Amino acid sequence: MLYKRLEDDRKEMNSFCIDDLVPKDHLVRKIEKAINFDSIYDLVESCYSPDRSRPSLDPVILIPLYKKI
Question: pTM for the whole thing?
């Protein structure tokens, strides 16, 4: 089916939880349990200003992607 994107589609908001998109037995969940990523904060601390600019995103972010076939 051919779908023509409407200009109004860009104004549409969706809300979802990434955690709900990842199966409970996904490899990324196993990696997250097995590895302590806390040392990353010490490694990147000098790259962030404590009093200027916008607040940063958490440098320890795993974004699991799961594609259903």
Answer: 0.47
